[in-house]
C-alpha cells in the first residue's frame, strides 16, 4: 500500500494484482507483473520498433476489459522504455536475458572462476557471505534465496532467544504489505504496529507501545512512505528506546546500501546499531536476486539451520552470487552519486510542475533521502500512465518508467528512481520533460 491508501488484503509485491483497479501497482513497479519486460507479444508492439517521433498504438480489441487495457498499456510502456534514448534509470527487470547475462562478464576479476562450483552454500557463496559481513562490520552473514525467507528466519531466531514472538514494526513495513502475512502464517510470529503514519516510527512510539515485544524491526528506508529515512539522531533514539524495553533490534535493510548519504555514517556504523541486518542484492545492486542476514556468529549459524528447514539450502547458486559480488564491486560505490542526482531530478520535477500549472503536484520527500522517491498528482492514474508512455513513444525521452497508481479519489502516485542512466540529466532538462508530460496529460494536471 502507498502511504495514504487503505490496506488491501492479499497484495503481493512481485505478482500480478488480482483487483482490477490495483492490478499493476507494486508488481508493475518492481517486477512488472507477469508480462515480462522485453517480451511484447507480436500483434501489439514489437520490441525495439518504437522509433523516436512515432507512436505504435497496436491493437486493443473492442470491448476489452479494464484489466486487458492495462495489460496492453504495460506492454507499450515496456517496449517504449527499451527503445527510449533518454531515461532516468534502466531497471534490471526491464533488461533482456542477454543483457542480464552480460552482467557476469567481469566476474572473473572478483572470484576465481576455475574453482569448483558451489554446493549447498559453500565456495563462492561463503565468499559473498564473508564480503557482506565485512562491509557491514558484523561477525558473520548467511546467504538466502529471498529476503522474505531471511527475515522470517532472523525473527524466529530472535523470538527463541528473547522468549517473545512479538515483533514491533511499522504498519507500512514490507512484511505487512508484501508477504501475505508470512510472519504469522508460517513462522508463528505476532506483528504489532508502532505507527501507520507515512514516516519512520519515533522513539516515543517505541516507548509508549502498550504491550511488550521481543524484537523491534526497522525498515531502512521505509519504501511505502516514500523511501524515507530518519536522521542519525532519530535513529539512535529509536534504537535506544528499544533497548530500554529489553528488545533486540533488527534492520530490514533491503535498501540500506544507499542510506549512508542521509544518515551521514558509513555502513558499518549504521549496521552496528542493530543486533541483526538483512540486505538485498538486487534492489539497488542489480543482482539476479538473493539476500543475506548478518549478525552475531551464533545467530547466523542457527539461521543456516533454519535456512535448510525453510528450503533455502539450494544445490548451486553461483550465477546469483556472482551477480551480487559484481553489484557490491560496481554499483555500491556509485549509490551516493545516484542519490545526489536524484535530488537534482527532484528539484527539476518540482520546478517543472509549477511552471506547467500543476501546483498540487508533490515530490516526496521534497529532498529525496535515497535515489528513489515518490511523485504525486491530482489526476487519474491510468491517464497519467498513458501520458508518460506517449511521451516516451513520441519523443524517445522517458521521465516516468513506473506506472502511476491510484492513491485515493482523484489522486495518483508513482515512484522515480535514478541510476547510472540518469546521471547526465540536468535540472533544466527534467523541467522541460515535465512540461512535455503535462502537455500530454491535459489541463487536469493541476486539480480535480
UniProtKB/TrEMBL annotation:
Pfam families assigned: Beta_elim_lyase (PF01212)
Leader peptide range in chain numbering: none
Biased composition (Basic and acidic residues): 22-68
Cofactor dependence: pyridoxal 5'-phosphate
InterPro entries tied to this protein: ArAA_b-elim_lyase/Thr_aldolase (IPR001597), PyrdxlP-dep_Trfase (IPR015424), PyrdxlP-dep_Trfase_major (IPR015421), PyrdxlP-dep_Trfase_small (IPR015422)
SUPFAM superfamilies noted in UniProt: PLP-dependent transferases
Keywords: Lyase, Pyridoxal phosphate
Annotated region (Disordered), positions in chain: 1-71
Gene3D superfamilies (UniProt xref): Aspartate Aminotransferase, domain 1 (3.90.1150.10), Type I PLP-dependent aspartate aminotransferase-like (Major domain) (3.40.640.10)
Aromatic amino acid beta-eliminating lyase/threonine aldolase domain boundaries: 121-351
GO molecular function: lyase activity
UniProt family annotation: Belongs to the threonine aldolase family.
Protein name in UniProt: Beta-eliminating lyase-related protein
Amino acid at each position: 500500500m502507498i502511504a495514504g491508501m487503505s490496506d488491501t488484503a492479499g497484495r503481493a509485491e512481485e505478482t500480478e494484482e488480482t483487483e482490477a483497479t490495483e492490478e499493476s501497482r507494486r508488481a508493475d513497479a518492481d517486477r512488472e507483473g507477469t508480462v515480462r519486460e522485453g517480451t511484447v507479444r507480436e500483434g501489439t508492439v514489437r520490441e525495439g520498433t518504437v522509433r523516436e517521433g512515432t507512436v505504435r498504438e497496436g491493437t486493443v480489441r473492442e470491448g476489452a476489459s479494464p484489466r486487458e487495457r492495462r495489460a496492453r498499456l504495460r506492454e507499450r510502456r515496456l517496449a517504449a522504455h527499451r527503445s527510449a534514448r533518454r531515461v532516468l534509470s534502466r531497471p534490471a527487470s526491464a533488461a533482456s536475458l542477454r543483457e542480464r547475462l552480460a552482467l557476469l562478464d567481469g566476474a572473473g576479476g572478483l572470484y576465481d572462476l576455475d574453482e569448483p562450483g558451489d554446493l549447498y552454500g559453500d565456495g563462492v557463496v561463503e565468499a559473498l557471505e564473508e564480503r557482506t559481513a565485512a562491509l557491514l562490520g558484523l561477525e558473520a552473514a548467511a546467504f538466502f534465496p529471498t529476503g522474505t525467507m531471511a527475515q522470517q528466519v532472523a525473527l524466529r531466531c530472535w523470538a527463541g532467544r528473547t522468549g517473545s514472538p512479538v515483533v514491533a514494526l511499522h504498519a507500512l513495513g514490507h512484511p505487512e504489505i508484501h508477504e501475505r502475512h508470512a510472519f504469522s502464517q508460517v513462522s508463528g510470529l505476532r506483528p504489532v504496529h508502532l505507527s501507520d503514519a507515512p514516516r519512520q516510527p519515533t522513539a516515543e512510539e517505541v516507548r509508549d507501545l502498550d504491550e511488550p515485544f521481543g524484537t523491534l524491526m526497522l525498515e531502512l528506508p521505509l519504501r511505502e512512505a516514500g523511501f524515507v529515512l530518519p536522521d542519525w539522531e532519530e535513529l539512535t533514539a529509536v534504537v535506544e528506546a528499544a533497548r530500554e524495553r529489553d528488545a533486540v533490534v533488527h534492520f530490514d535493510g533491503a535498501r540500506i546500501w544507499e542510506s549512508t548519504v542521509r544518515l551521514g555514517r558509513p555502513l558499518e556504523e549504521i549496521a552496528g546499531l542493530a543486533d541483526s541486518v538483512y540486505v538485498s542484492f538486487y534492489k539497488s545492486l542489480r543482482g539476479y536476486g538473493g539476500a543475506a542476514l548478518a549478525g552475531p556468529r551464533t545467530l547466523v549459524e542457527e539461521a543456516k539451520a533454519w535456512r535448510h528447514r525453510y528450503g533455502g539450502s539450494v544445490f548451486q547458486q553461483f550465477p546469483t552470487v556472482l551477480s551480487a559480488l559484481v553489484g557490491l564491486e560496481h554499483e555500491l560505490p556509485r549509490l551516493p552519486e545516484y542519490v545526489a542526482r536524484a535530488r537534482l531530478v527532484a528539484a527539476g520535477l518540482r520546478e517543472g510542475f509549477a511552471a506547467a500549472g500543476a501546483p498540487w503536484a508533490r515530490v516526496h520527500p521534497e529532498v529525496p533521502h535515497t535515489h528513489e522517491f515518490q511523485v504525486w498528482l491530482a489526476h487519474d492514474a491510468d491517464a497519467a500512465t498513458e501520458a508518460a508512455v506517449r511521451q516516451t513513444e513520441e519523443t524517445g525521452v522517458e521521465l516516468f518508467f513506473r506506472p502511476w497508481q491510484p492513491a485515493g479519489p482523484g489522486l495518483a502516485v508513482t515512484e522515480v528512481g535514478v541510476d547510472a542512466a540518469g546521471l547526465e540529466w540536468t535540472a533544466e532538462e527534467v523541467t522541460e520533460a515535465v512540461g512535455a508530460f503535462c502537455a500530454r496529460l491535459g489541463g487536469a494536471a493541476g486539480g480535480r
